[in-house]
């Protein structure tokens, strides 16, 4: 087994951002694997979360938010490059591991044991994993995915790495993580993070995206009438989870700033909590509507969420608007 960290899935301690008691223990595959990848390398992912405040309604979905690659480089000295897949995928991953570099690979959740109960051997869904251990001879692989660290083997190994089947398959998108070894620490990390916050505040929506979402939501409800549970889950992932999880992470980021010398941010963090919790309530009520067709009035919930967004953005702009304008 070629591996970069000696990690036992049975004893691995996930980052607190993935604690079960959180409103949204998971956000999306890319953000979640980076939280754990940074955590495993003793880098604090909280410092790189200001991008969450720029999420927006993108038509039929909310922003599929990700750690910006420039932020990872500026804060941690982590460079991410695309890998040209011109040989068997396992050979590429093994060579990068020999260079001390984990690979981020787009794969099929059908072969990931950690998705048991949802996609595992049941549904073909694209996702991304962070590979930090590989044993090609023994057909074993260690990977970060969603809220933890896991292993797979045997037929799942062959399926994930496309060792069998159509020789004309389209190669997946693969990134390589290069740890440059110059992460910022202490106040330097906080100051650099605040600069990134200013940059992302400058990119925030020009109007309240939750009010736009409220306007289109009746049409979404109509489209969900009579749909399958699987269809509802796809909708919920693209909408409720993305905006709800983004602001819960944003609140965690503001509390990280408080713990590192910034003051007066708790009311803004609390407004982010309101967005996260009320969005979860909206998801639950929509799920009930989808399965029973029992009507409900979503507008009071949207009013609460939209007011919390206004409060959060006003507070952040008042506090860090000068940085945003300078950016």
Describe this structure in words.
There is one protein chain. By secondary structure, the protein is an alpha+beta fold. It folds into two domains: 2-42 and 78-179, no CATH class; 186-326, no CATH class. Helices cover 47% and strands 13% of the residues. It contains nine helices and seven strands; from the N terminus they run βααβαββββαβααααα. The chain has helices at residues 29-40, 69-76, 89-98, 155-160, 186-202, 209-224, 229-259, 266-292, 299-326; strands at 2-3, 78-82, 103-108, 126-135, 140-145, 148-153, 174-179. Strands 1, 2, 3, 4, 5, 6 and 7 form a seven-stranded antiparallel beta sheet that branches. Strand 4 (126-135) and strand 5 (140-145) form a beta hairpin. The chain is globular and about 60 Å long. The chain starts with a strand and ends with a helix. 37% of the residues are buried.
Blueprint of the fold:
Layout: E1 2-3, H1 29-40, H2 69-76, E2 78-82, H3 89-98, E3 103-108, E4 126-135, E5 140-145, E6 148-153, H4 155-160, E7 174-179, H5 186-202, H6 209-224, H7 229-259, H8 266-292, H9 299-326
Helix pairs in contact: 5-9, 6-9, 7-8, 8-9
């Amino acid at each position: 087994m070629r591996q970069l960290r000696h990690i036992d899935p049975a004893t691995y301690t996930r980052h607190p951002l993935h604690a079960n008691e959180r409103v949204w223990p998971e956000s999306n595959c890319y953000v979640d694997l980076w939280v754990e990848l940074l955590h495993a390398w003793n880098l604090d992912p909280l410092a790189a979360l200001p991008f969450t405040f720029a999420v927006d309604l993108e038509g039929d979905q909310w922003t599929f938010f990700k750690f910006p690659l420039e932020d990872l480089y500026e804060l941690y000295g982590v460079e991410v490059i695309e890998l040209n897949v011109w040989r068997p995928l396992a050979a590429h991953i093994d060579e990068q591991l020999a260079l001390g570099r984990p690979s981020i690979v787009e794969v099929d959740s059908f072969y990931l044991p950690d998705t048991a109960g949802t996609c595992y051997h049941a549904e073909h869904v694209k996702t991304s994993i962070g590979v930090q251990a590989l044993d090609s001879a023994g057909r074993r692989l260690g990977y970060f995915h969603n809220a933890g660290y896991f292993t797979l083997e045997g037929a799942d190994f062959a399926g994930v790495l496309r060792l069998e089947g159509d020789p004309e398959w389209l190669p997946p998108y693969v990134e390589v993580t290069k740890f440059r070894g110059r992460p910022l620490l202490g106040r330097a990390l906080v100051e650099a993070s605040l600069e990134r916050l200013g940059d992302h505040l400058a990119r925030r929506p020009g109007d309240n995206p939750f009010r736009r979402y409220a306007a289109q939501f009746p049409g979404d409800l109509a489209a969900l009438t009579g749909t399958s549970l699987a269809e509802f889950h796809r909708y919920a992932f693209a909408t409720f989870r993305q905006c709800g999880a983004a602001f819960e992470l944003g609140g965690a980021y503001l509390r990280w700033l408080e713990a590192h010398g910034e003051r007066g941010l708790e009311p803004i963090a609390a407004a982010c909590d309101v967005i996260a919790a009320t969005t979860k309530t909206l998801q639950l009520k929509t799920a009930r509507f989808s399965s029973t067709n029992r009507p409900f009035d979503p507008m009071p919930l949207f009013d609460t969420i939209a007011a919390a967004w206004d409060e959060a953005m006003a507070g952040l702009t008042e506090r860090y608007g000068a940085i945003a304008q300078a950016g």
